[in-house]
Amino acid sequence: MSPAPMMYELATNGSKTTTIPAAKMATMPHTTSIPVTAPTKPEVIEDMAGNWADFKFAPIRESQVSRAMTRRYFADLDKYAESDIVIIGAGSCGLSTAYTLAKARPDLKIAIIEAGVAPGGGAWLGGQLFSAMIMRKPADAFLRELGVPYEDDGVDANYVVVKHAALFTSTVLSKVLQFPNVKLFNATAVEDLITRKTEDGGIRIAGVVTNWTLVSMHHDDQSCMDPNTINAPLIVSTTGHDGPFGAFSVKRLVSMNAIPALGGMRGLDMNTAEDAIVKGTREITPGLIVGGMELSEVDGANRMGPTFGAMALSGVKAAEEALKVFEQ
Ligand code: 48N
Fold first, then answer.
1. Which of 111, 193, 223, 238 could disulfide-pair with 94, CB 3.0 to 4.6 Å?
2. Tens of pLDDT along 279-311?
3. Whose CA is nearest to atom 20 of ligand 1?
4. Is ipTM strictly over 0.95?
């Protein structure tokens, strides 16, 4: 006797449900279904053509995997030991900087150092863990440049909405990682800056000092674990205003007496904050451009809360400031 068909519960109307055999599922008009165009089967399903019973990966030796990973990682460390630009922090500002720079100057070697395993900083959610991301006009131009779809709440809305912040962040991250002149070193922290004395007795930033983040976080409970370095004539620091390493570079500049005391981020004022961060993005010490919310700690700018247009456009401006250095 063939086994009874598996039955599935289907919502039909409001709280009403019915249970039907799998075969009928595809034919039933789901009340919960989302209107779609013509569903298409992913190619891989056609390729597999249901031959899972005979499925088998091509054979491999574990060392091949190890060598494929480590060979590339250490070749990249060697290649980017001398970079043209290092971006510290792969949040919304750092990624926008990287995208703008890498597209404008495919000849420049750009290293991005991100302390987190997951790049993206605070841009995976909108505000209070809500999904939608708000960007005030004219930052929608950057969304169009990236091809990120958004909803426009109307001419008097003065803002657009990306339905999920992760759509923006994953798109800009994906584009940045596809540039051949960009290397992201994530799970890697900048734990100091390389400095050179200038004739006027000041300092110029000439690179970054790095360590794997898990190592950086255990300097207090392990004997000295020396860092690595990356030399570069220009650094863009976008390390945000909070987080375990927040506002890293500007705090380090103060501790080196390279800049006076920090201004400290002020209370929330969207209009003031976003204009100030974009317009204030600049080279604050020779060799170091600061953008995004890290800048609010230098200038004592207000915070803007759950709106991200300034992060995107501060990244665009940071890239433009960097390009000026390379065009000089
Ligand atoms: O997202 P963040 O924190 O920074 P930004 O400036 O790209 O974007 C800020 C934005 O998310 C807001 O804060 C919004 C607009 N809210 C404003 C408000 O009023 O609250 O990204 C910084 C990235 C993070 O991914 C950190 O892990 C990383 O920088 N980072 C570092 N990476 C390497 N080395 C370090 N020393 C370091 N410090 C921070």
1. 238
2. 999 999 999 999 999 999 999 999 999 999 999
3. 305
4. yes
